[in-house]
Specification:
Length: about 500
Protein backbone atom coordinates (compact mmCIF):
# COMPACT_ATOMS: atom_id res chain seq x y z
CA UNK A 1 0.00 0.00 0.00
CA UNK A 2 1.32 3.44 -0.90
CA UNK A 3 0.99 6.26 1.62
CA UNK A 4 1.59 9.87 0.53
CA UNK A 5 2.34 12.58 3.08
CA UNK A 6 2.25 16.33 2.33
CA UNK A 7 5.69 17.90 2.48
CA UNK A 8 6.44 19.25 5.95
CA UNK A 9 9.29 21.31 4.67
CA UNK A 10 7.31 22.94 1.85
CA UNK A 11 4.44 23.68 4.19
CA UNK A 12 6.74 25.27 6.74
CA UNK A 13 8.43 27.41 4.10
CA UNK A 14 5.09 28.59 2.73
CA UNK A 15 3.86 29.53 6.19
CA UNK A 16 7.04 31.46 6.86
CA UNK A 17 6.87 33.34 3.58
CA UNK A 18 3.35 34.52 4.24
CA UNK A 19 3.23 35.11 8.00
CA UNK A 20 6.84 35.65 8.96
CA UNK A 21 6.85 32.73 11.38
CA UNK A 22 7.96 29.15 10.97
CA UNK A 23 8.61 26.24 13.31
CA UNK A 24 9.56 22.67 12.52
CA UNK A 25 9.71 20.57 15.64
CA UNK A 26 8.96 16.88 16.09
CA UNK A 27 10.81 13.82 17.39
CA UNK A 28 10.99 12.40 13.86
CA UNK A 29 12.49 15.63 12.52
CA UNK A 30 15.14 15.92 15.22
CA UNK A 31 18.57 16.40 13.73
CA UNK A 32 17.31 17.18 10.22
CA UNK A 33 17.33 20.98 10.44
CA UNK A 34 20.37 22.90 9.30
CA UNK A 35 21.12 26.58 9.81
CA UNK A 36 17.95 28.52 9.01
CA UNK A 37 17.92 30.56 5.81
CA UNK A 38 16.68 34.18 5.96
CA UNK A 39 14.07 34.74 3.27
CA UNK A 40 11.86 37.74 2.50
CA UNK A 41 8.18 37.44 3.39
CA UNK A 42 5.99 37.12 0.31
CA UNK A 43 2.73 38.63 1.54
CA UNK A 44 1.70 41.04 4.28
CA UNK A 45 -1.30 43.15 5.23
CA UNK A 46 -1.81 46.47 7.03
CA UNK A 47 -4.94 48.17 8.38
CA UNK A 48 -5.45 51.93 8.71
CA UNK A 49 -8.21 53.26 11.02
CA UNK A 50 -10.74 55.86 9.83
CA UNK A 51 -8.81 59.11 10.34
CA UNK A 52 -11.32 61.69 11.62
CA UNK A 53 -14.97 62.72 11.78
CA UNK A 54 -14.04 66.40 11.42
CA UNK A 55 -15.20 68.11 8.23
CA UNK A 56 -11.99 70.16 8.18
CA UNK A 57 -9.63 67.21 8.57
CA UNK A 58 -6.99 66.62 5.89
CA UNK A 59 -5.39 63.18 5.77
CA UNK A 60 -2.42 61.90 3.81
CA UNK A 61 -1.26 58.30 3.38
CA UNK A 62 2.33 57.37 2.58
CA UNK A 63 3.34 53.86 1.53
CA UNK A 64 6.93 52.66 1.39
CA UNK A 65 8.78 49.37 0.93
CA UNK A 66 12.57 49.30 1.34
CA UNK A 67 14.52 47.51 -1.37
CA UNK A 68 15.15 43.97 -0.10
CA UNK A 69 17.71 41.52 -1.48
CA UNK A 70 16.22 38.30 -2.95
CA UNK A 71 12.68 39.72 -2.81
CA UNK A 72 12.05 38.87 -6.47
CA UNK A 73 10.74 41.12 -9.21
CA UNK A 74 6.97 40.63 -9.17
CA UNK A 75 4.15 41.61 -6.86
CA UNK A 76 2.14 44.69 -5.96
CA UNK A 77 0.86 46.74 -3.02
CA UNK A 78 -2.42 48.59 -2.71
CA UNK A 79 -4.51 50.31 -0.06
CA UNK A 80 -8.30 50.23 -0.40
CA UNK A 81 -11.35 51.28 1.59
CA UNK A 82 -12.37 48.51 4.01
CA UNK A 83 -15.92 48.44 2.65
CA UNK A 84 -18.35 50.15 0.32
CA UNK A 85 -21.79 51.15 1.50
CA UNK A 86 -24.97 49.87 -0.11
CA UNK A 87 -27.85 52.14 -1.10
CA UNK A 88 -29.50 51.68 2.32
CA UNK A 89 -26.39 52.98 4.09
CA UNK A 90 -25.33 49.60 5.50
CA UNK A 91 -21.98 47.99 4.87
CA UNK A 92 -22.03 45.99 1.69
CA UNK A 93 -18.95 44.03 2.69
CA UNK A 94 -17.21 44.69 -0.61
CA UNK A 95 -13.82 46.19 -1.08
CA UNK A 96 -13.65 49.40 -3.10
CA UNK A 97 -12.36 48.87 -6.62
CA UNK A 98 -10.08 51.92 -6.73
CA UNK A 99 -7.02 51.92 -4.43
CA UNK A 100 -6.29 55.01 -2.34
CA UNK A 101 -2.68 54.60 -3.40
CA UNK A 102 -0.85 52.19 -5.68
CA UNK A 103 2.96 52.06 -5.23
CA UNK A 104 5.04 51.72 -8.38
CA UNK A 105 8.27 50.28 -6.99
CA UNK A 106 10.15 49.56 -3.75
CA UNK A 107 12.51 52.31 -2.63
CA UNK A 108 10.18 55.17 -3.56
CA UNK A 109 7.26 56.42 -1.42
CA UNK A 110 3.75 56.54 -2.84
CA UNK A 111 1.22 59.03 -1.49
CA UNK A 112 -2.54 59.53 -1.42
CA UNK A 113 -4.91 62.01 0.24
CA UNK A 114 -8.44 62.30 1.58
CA UNK A 115 -10.32 65.18 3.21
CA UNK A 116 -13.37 65.70 5.41
CA UNK A 117 -14.99 63.45 7.96
CA UNK A 118 -16.23 60.70 5.65
CA UNK A 119 -12.89 58.97 5.09
CA UNK A 120 -13.09 55.22 5.70
CA UNK A 121 -10.77 52.75 7.33
CA UNK A 122 -8.38 51.17 4.82
CA UNK A 123 -7.17 47.63 4.21
CA UNK A 124 -3.80 47.16 2.54
CA UNK A 125 -2.11 44.13 1.01
CA UNK A 126 1.42 43.82 -0.33
CA UNK A 127 2.82 40.87 -2.26
CA UNK A 128 6.15 39.83 -3.74
CA UNK A 129 8.85 42.49 -3.75
CA UNK A 130 6.51 45.00 -2.09
CA UNK A 131 5.88 42.86 1.03
CA UNK A 132 9.17 42.79 3.01
CA UNK A 133 9.22 45.77 5.36
CA UNK A 134 6.11 47.41 3.92
CA UNK A 135 4.98 50.41 6.00
CA UNK A 136 2.10 52.86 5.65
CA UNK A 137 1.78 56.13 7.60
CA UNK A 138 -1.57 57.88 8.13
CA UNK A 139 -1.22 61.58 9.03
CA UNK A 140 -4.16 63.90 9.70
CA UNK A 141 -4.24 67.66 10.24
CA UNK A 142 -7.22 69.01 12.20
CA UNK A 143 -7.26 72.81 12.39
CA UNK A 144 -9.77 73.25 15.23
CA UNK A 145 -12.05 71.46 17.66
CA UNK A 146 -11.49 68.53 19.98
CA UNK A 147 -8.28 66.74 19.05
CA UNK A 148 -7.04 69.64 16.92
CA UNK A 149 -3.44 69.41 15.79
CA UNK A 150 -1.44 66.69 14.07
CA UNK A 151 -2.53 63.05 14.40
CA UNK A 152 -0.40 60.21 13.06
CA UNK A 153 -0.35 56.43 13.17
CA UNK A 154 1.52 53.60 11.52
CA UNK A 155 -1.05 51.33 9.90
CA UNK A 156 -0.74 47.99 11.69
CA UNK A 157 -1.07 44.29 10.95
CA UNK A 158 -4.18 42.41 12.11
CA UNK A 159 -3.77 40.47 15.35
CA UNK A 160 -5.76 38.86 18.17
CA UNK A 161 -4.68 40.85 21.25
CA UNK A 162 -3.77 44.48 21.98
CA UNK A 163 -2.88 46.52 25.12
CA UNK A 164 -3.40 50.29 25.31
CA UNK A 165 -2.21 51.90 28.57
CA UNK A 166 -2.84 55.66 28.49
CA UNK A 167 -6.48 55.79 27.34
CA UNK A 168 -9.04 57.80 29.33
CA UNK A 169 -12.74 58.40 30.04
CA UNK A 170 -12.11 61.76 31.77
CA UNK A 171 -14.57 64.59 31.08
CA UNK A 172 -12.25 66.42 28.67
CA UNK A 173 -11.28 63.28 26.72
CA UNK A 174 -13.12 61.53 23.91
CA UNK A 175 -11.38 58.21 23.25
CA UNK A 176 -12.36 55.65 20.63
CA UNK A 177 -11.06 52.13 20.05
CA UNK A 178 -11.07 51.58 16.29
CA UNK A 179 -11.53 47.92 15.30
CA UNK A 180 -11.00 46.95 11.65
CA UNK A 181 -11.78 43.50 10.27
CA UNK A 182 -10.01 42.69 6.96
CA UNK A 183 -11.44 39.18 6.51
CA UNK A 184 -14.48 37.56 4.88
CA UNK A 185 -15.95 36.36 8.20
CA UNK A 186 -17.05 38.34 11.26
CA UNK A 187 -14.69 38.90 14.19
CA UNK A 188 -15.85 38.76 17.82
CA UNK A 189 -14.00 41.04 20.24
CA UNK A 190 -13.96 41.72 23.98
CA UNK A 191 -12.85 45.14 25.30
CA UNK A 192 -11.74 45.24 28.94
CA UNK A 193 -11.00 48.45 30.87
CA UNK A 194 -8.67 48.65 33.87
CA UNK A 195 -8.40 51.73 36.07
CA UNK A 196 -6.53 52.66 39.24
CA UNK A 197 -8.64 50.25 41.32
CA UNK A 198 -8.81 47.37 38.86
CA UNK A 199 -11.30 46.21 36.24
CA UNK A 200 -14.18 48.60 35.50
CA UNK A 201 -17.71 47.19 35.58
CA UNK A 202 -18.97 46.84 32.01
CA UNK A 203 -20.82 44.19 30.04
CA UNK A 204 -21.13 46.32 26.89
CA UNK A 205 -17.56 45.53 25.90
CA UNK A 206 -18.19 41.78 25.70
CA UNK A 207 -18.81 39.97 22.43
CA UNK A 208 -18.60 42.94 20.08
CA UNK A 209 -19.13 41.74 16.50
CA UNK A 210 -17.10 43.42 13.77
CA UNK A 211 -18.60 42.60 10.38
CA UNK A 212 -16.43 41.37 7.48
CA UNK A 213 -14.52 44.12 5.66
CA UNK A 214 -15.66 46.81 8.07
CA UNK A 215 -14.42 49.06 10.86
CA UNK A 216 -16.14 50.09 14.09
CA UNK A 217 -15.07 53.01 16.33
CA UNK A 218 -16.10 52.14 19.90
CA UNK A 219 -16.44 55.15 22.23
CA UNK A 220 -14.92 54.16 25.57
CA UNK A 221 -17.33 56.29 27.60
CA UNK A 222 -20.22 54.15 26.29
CA UNK A 223 -18.68 51.05 27.86
CA UNK A 224 -18.58 52.39 31.43
CA UNK A 225 -20.07 55.14 33.56
CA UNK A 226 -16.81 55.64 35.45
CA UNK A 227 -14.73 58.70 34.66
CA UNK A 228 -11.05 57.87 35.03
CA UNK A 229 -8.05 59.87 33.93
CA UNK A 230 -5.79 56.89 33.22
CA UNK A 231 -7.04 53.62 31.79
CA UNK A 232 -5.56 50.50 30.27
CA UNK A 233 -7.62 49.05 27.41
CA UNK A 234 -7.31 45.35 26.61
CA UNK A 235 -8.64 44.22 23.23
CA UNK A 236 -9.01 40.44 23.08
CA UNK A 237 -10.28 38.78 19.89
CA UNK A 238 -12.35 35.66 20.53
CA UNK A 239 -12.64 34.71 16.86
CA UNK A 240 -11.08 36.13 13.72
CA UNK A 241 -8.56 38.95 13.79
CA UNK A 242 -8.66 42.75 13.72
CA UNK A 243 -6.51 45.82 13.57
CA UNK A 244 -6.83 48.06 16.63
CA UNK A 245 -5.79 51.59 17.62
CA UNK A 246 -7.04 54.17 20.12
CA UNK A 247 -7.87 57.70 18.98
CA UNK A 248 -7.49 60.01 21.98
CA UNK A 249 -9.09 63.46 21.54
CA UNK A 250 -8.70 66.15 24.21
CA UNK A 251 -10.78 69.33 24.40
CA UNK A 252 -7.78 71.42 25.53
CA UNK A 253 -4.63 69.47 24.67
CA UNK A 254 -5.28 68.40 21.08
CA UNK A 255 -5.06 64.70 20.35
CA UNK A 256 -3.34 61.83 18.61
CA UNK A 257 -3.42 58.09 18.05
CA UNK A 258 -2.32 55.75 20.82
CA UNK A 259 -0.75 52.69 19.23
CA UNK A 260 -0.65 49.37 21.06
CA UNK A 261 2.12 48.73 23.56
CA UNK A 262 4.47 45.86 22.79
CA UNK A 263 3.47 42.53 24.34
CA UNK A 264 3.65 42.40 28.16
CA UNK A 265 7.29 42.12 29.13
CA UNK A 266 9.61 42.42 32.10
CA UNK A 267 11.71 45.31 30.75
CA UNK A 268 10.39 48.06 28.48
CA UNK A 269 11.78 50.95 26.44
CA UNK A 270 9.70 54.00 25.42
CA UNK A 271 11.88 55.91 22.91
CA UNK A 272 11.91 59.43 21.52
CA UNK A 273 10.56 61.88 24.10
CA UNK A 274 10.84 65.35 22.50
CA UNK A 275 13.48 67.49 24.16
CA UNK A 276 11.00 70.38 24.53
CA UNK A 277 8.26 68.28 26.17
CA UNK A 278 6.53 70.33 28.89
CA UNK A 279 4.71 67.42 30.54
CA UNK A 280 5.22 63.66 30.41
CA UNK A 281 2.95 61.10 32.07
CA UNK A 282 3.86 57.42 32.44
CA UNK A 283 0.97 54.92 32.51
CA UNK A 284 1.68 51.23 33.24
CA UNK A 285 -0.28 48.04 33.86
CA UNK A 286 0.49 44.41 34.65
CA UNK A 287 -1.90 41.57 33.71
CA UNK A 288 -0.08 39.37 36.21
CA UNK A 289 -1.47 38.21 39.55
CA UNK A 290 1.64 39.72 41.17
CA UNK A 291 2.57 43.37 41.70
CA UNK A 292 5.39 44.92 39.69
CA UNK A 293 8.01 47.35 40.98
CA UNK A 294 9.63 49.25 38.13
CA UNK A 295 12.90 51.13 38.21
CA UNK A 296 12.42 54.28 36.14
CA UNK A 297 15.40 55.68 34.22
CA UNK A 298 15.88 58.24 31.47
CA UNK A 299 18.36 57.43 28.72
CA UNK A 300 19.79 60.90 28.03
CA UNK A 301 22.59 62.01 25.66
CA UNK A 302 25.07 61.55 28.53
CA UNK A 303 23.77 58.22 29.88
CA UNK A 304 21.14 56.72 32.15
CA UNK A 305 19.80 59.01 34.89
CA UNK A 306 17.04 58.60 37.47
CA UNK A 307 14.30 61.27 37.49
CA UNK A 308 14.21 62.96 40.90
CA UNK A 309 11.07 62.00 42.80
CA UNK A 310 10.16 59.27 40.29
CA UNK A 311 12.84 56.69 40.93
CA UNK A 312 10.36 53.79 40.96
CA UNK A 313 6.75 53.00 40.07
CA UNK A 314 4.70 50.42 41.96
CA UNK A 315 2.13 48.70 39.72
CA UNK A 316 -0.49 46.68 41.57
CA UNK A 317 -1.72 43.48 39.93
CA UNK A 318 -4.62 44.19 37.58
CA UNK A 319 -4.58 47.93 38.27
CA UNK A 320 -3.38 50.88 36.18
CA UNK A 321 -0.60 52.98 37.73
CA UNK A 322 0.60 56.40 36.59
CA UNK A 323 3.30 58.95 37.36
CA UNK A 324 3.63 62.57 36.21
CA UNK A 325 7.26 63.08 35.20
CA UNK A 326 6.96 66.79 34.32
CA UNK A 327 9.52 68.17 31.86
CA UNK A 328 11.71 65.13 32.45
CA UNK A 329 13.95 65.64 29.39
CA UNK A 330 14.89 69.23 30.39
CA UNK A 331 15.83 70.33 26.88
CA UNK A 332 17.68 67.17 25.84
CA UNK A 333 16.78 64.06 23.88
CA UNK A 334 15.48 61.25 26.06
CA UNK A 335 13.90 57.80 26.21
CA UNK A 336 12.35 56.07 29.21
CA UNK A 337 13.74 52.71 30.34
CA UNK A 338 11.67 50.58 32.75
CA UNK A 339 13.40 47.72 34.57
CA UNK A 340 11.53 45.47 37.04
CA UNK A 341 12.84 44.12 40.31
CA UNK A 342 11.23 40.82 39.27
CA UNK A 343 11.61 40.13 35.55
CA UNK A 344 8.94 37.41 35.67
CA UNK A 345 6.15 39.99 36.12
CA UNK A 346 5.10 41.28 32.65
CA UNK A 347 4.15 44.93 32.16
CA UNK A 348 2.74 47.16 29.40
CA UNK A 349 3.31 50.93 29.36
CA UNK A 350 2.90 54.16 27.41
CA UNK A 351 3.72 57.86 27.74
CA UNK A 352 1.45 60.83 27.15
CA UNK A 353 3.64 63.72 25.99
CA UNK A 354 2.60 67.40 25.92
CA UNK A 355 4.38 70.21 24.08
CA UNK A 356 3.60 73.93 24.28
CA UNK A 357 2.04 76.06 27.00
CA UNK A 358 -1.33 77.62 27.83
CA UNK A 359 -3.78 77.46 24.95
CA UNK A 360 -1.07 76.34 22.55
CA UNK A 361 -0.58 72.79 23.83
CA UNK A 362 -0.62 69.56 21.84
CA UNK A 363 -0.46 65.88 22.82
CA UNK A 364 1.15 62.72 21.46
CA UNK A 365 1.74 59.21 22.80
CA UNK A 366 4.74 56.89 22.99
CA UNK A 367 3.95 53.22 23.71
CA UNK A 368 6.59 50.73 24.78
CA UNK A 369 7.94 49.18 21.59
CA UNK A 370 10.09 46.40 20.18
CA UNK A 371 13.70 47.16 19.20
CA UNK A 372 14.65 48.14 15.66
CA UNK A 373 16.02 44.62 15.22
CA UNK A 374 17.35 43.94 11.75
CA UNK A 375 15.55 46.86 10.08
CA UNK A 376 12.77 49.37 10.71
CA UNK A 377 11.19 52.10 8.58
CA UNK A 378 9.02 55.16 9.12
CA UNK A 379 7.39 57.06 6.23
CA UNK A 380 6.03 60.57 5.56
CA UNK A 381 9.10 62.57 6.56
CA UNK A 382 9.55 66.16 5.41
CA UNK A 383 12.60 68.32 4.81
CA UNK A 384 11.71 70.25 7.97
CA UNK A 385 9.89 68.98 11.03
CA UNK A 386 11.16 65.38 11.22
CA UNK A 387 13.31 64.27 14.17
CA UNK A 388 14.79 60.76 14.41
CA UNK A 389 15.59 59.64 17.95
CA UNK A 390 17.66 56.50 18.64
CA UNK A 391 18.57 54.89 21.95
CA UNK A 392 20.89 52.03 22.96
CA UNK A 393 19.77 51.25 26.53
CA UNK A 394 22.19 48.45 27.41
CA UNK A 395 25.22 48.34 25.10
CA UNK A 396 26.86 50.53 22.49
CA UNK A 397 25.54 49.98 18.98
CA UNK A 398 26.05 51.04 15.38
CA UNK A 399 23.21 51.64 12.91
CA UNK A 400 22.87 52.66 9.29
CA UNK A 401 20.16 55.23 8.49
CA UNK A 402 18.94 55.58 4.90
CA UNK A 403 16.75 58.38 3.57
CA UNK A 404 14.82 57.05 0.59
CA UNK A 405 14.22 58.80 -2.68
CA UNK A 406 11.50 61.44 -2.45
CA UNK A 407 7.93 60.70 -3.49
CA UNK A 408 8.26 63.27 -6.28
CA UNK A 409 12.00 63.15 -6.91
CA UNK A 410 15.44 62.87 -5.33
CA UNK A 411 18.06 60.21 -4.62
CA UNK A 412 18.57 58.05 -1.53
CA UNK A 413 21.33 58.91 0.96
CA UNK A 414 22.76 56.84 3.87
CA UNK A 415 24.70 57.68 7.05
CA UNK A 416 26.11 55.53 9.86
CA UNK A 417 25.80 56.38 13.57
CA UNK A 418 27.35 54.90 16.70
CA UNK A 419 25.39 55.18 19.95
CA UNK A 420 26.97 54.94 23.39
CA UNK A 421 25.52 52.52 25.93
CA UNK A 422 22.62 53.94 27.95
CA UNK A 423 22.17 57.02 25.75
CA UNK A 424 19.56 58.60 23.49
CA UNK A 425 20.53 60.77 20.54
CA UNK A 426 18.48 62.88 18.15
CA UNK A 427 20.62 62.03 15.16
CA UNK A 428 21.14 64.29 12.17
CA UNK A 429 19.39 61.93 9.80
CA UNK A 430 20.17 62.32 6.11
CA UNK A 431 17.73 63.80 3.60
CA UNK A 432 17.54 62.70 -0.04
CA UNK A 433 19.64 64.56 -2.56
CA UNK A 434 17.36 66.84 -4.60
CA UNK A 435 14.36 65.99 -2.43
CA UNK A 436 10.87 66.61 -3.78
CA UNK A 437 7.87 65.46 -1.76
CA UNK A 438 8.12 63.20 1.29
CA UNK A 439 10.60 60.44 2.06
CA UNK A 440 11.10 57.40 4.29
CA UNK A 441 13.79 56.75 6.89
CA UNK A 442 15.07 53.19 7.27
CA UNK A 443 17.23 52.18 10.25
CA UNK A 444 19.37 49.02 9.96
CA UNK A 445 21.20 47.45 12.89
CA UNK A 446 24.89 47.02 12.08
CA UNK A 447 26.47 45.86 15.34
CA UNK A 448 26.31 46.02 19.13
CA UNK A 449 23.36 45.95 21.50
CA UNK A 450 19.66 46.48 20.81
CA UNK A 451 18.54 49.84 19.43
CA UNK A 452 15.12 51.47 19.84
CA UNK A 453 13.85 54.34 17.72
CA UNK A 454 11.07 56.86 17.21
CA UNK A 455 10.31 59.63 14.76
CA UNK A 456 8.67 62.93 15.74
CA UNK A 457 6.83 64.75 12.96
CA UNK A 458 6.07 68.39 13.80
CA UNK A 459 4.02 71.04 12.03
CA UNK A 460 3.10 74.32 13.74
CA UNK A 461 -0.08 76.08 12.63
CA UNK A 462 -1.44 79.30 14.13
CA UNK A 463 1.06 79.05 16.97
CA UNK A 464 -0.06 75.55 18.02
CA UNK A 465 2.89 73.10 18.05
CA UNK A 466 1.23 70.15 16.33
CA UNK A 467 3.24 66.95 16.50
CA UNK A 468 2.96 63.16 16.39
CA UNK A 469 5.39 60.38 17.32
CA UNK A 470 5.79 56.94 15.71
CA UNK A 471 8.03 54.15 17.00
CA UNK A 472 10.29 52.09 14.73
CA UNK A 473 9.94 48.40 15.65
CA UNK A 474 11.54 45.67 13.56
CA UNK A 475 9.66 45.39 10.26
CA UNK A 476 9.69 41.56 10.29
CA UNK A 477 10.38 41.61 6.58
CA UNK A 478 12.66 38.57 6.78
CA UNK A 479 11.91 35.14 8.21
CA UNK A 480 14.10 32.21 9.19
CA UNK A 481 13.16 29.07 7.24
CA UNK A 482 15.00 25.90 8.33
CA UNK A 483 16.62 23.73 5.70
CA UNK A 484 16.47 19.93 5.93
CA UNK A 485 18.81 17.03 5.24
CA UNK A 486 15.97 14.88 3.93
CA UNK A 487 13.08 15.43 1.51
CA UNK A 488 9.96 14.44 3.44
CA UNK A 489 7.52 15.23 0.63
CA UNK A 490 6.74 11.61 -0.16
CA UNK A 491 6.97 8.69 2.22
CA UNK A 492 6.18 5.28 0.82
CA UNK A 493 5.64 2.04 2.67
Amino acid sequence: MNRTTVSLIAGTAALAAVTGFATLSSPQAAGTARTAAELPVERTSLLCPAPSTSDIAETSYTSFTPVTKDAGSGGKAELQAAAEESSDGKSAGKKASKPVLDPEEPGKPATGETSGGDAQALVGTAEGKFAPGWTVQETTKVAAGSGRGLQGVNCSAPDTEFWFPGASTAADRTDYVHLTNPDDSAAVVDIELYGKDGALDSTLGEGITVAPHSSDPILLSTLTEEKQENLTVHVNVRSGRVGAAVQALDDKLGGDWLAASTDPSGSLVLPGIPKDATAVRLVAFTPSDSDADLKVQLASPSGLITPAGNETLHVKAGMTASADLGDVTRGEAGSLVLTPTDASVPVVAALRVVRGKGDNQETAFIPATRPVGTRATVADNSAKGSTLSLTAPTRAATVKVTASAGSEGGEAVSKTFTLKAGTTENVEAPTPTGLKGTYALTVEHVSGGPVYGARTLAATADGVPGFTIQALPDDRGMVAVPEADQDLSVLQK
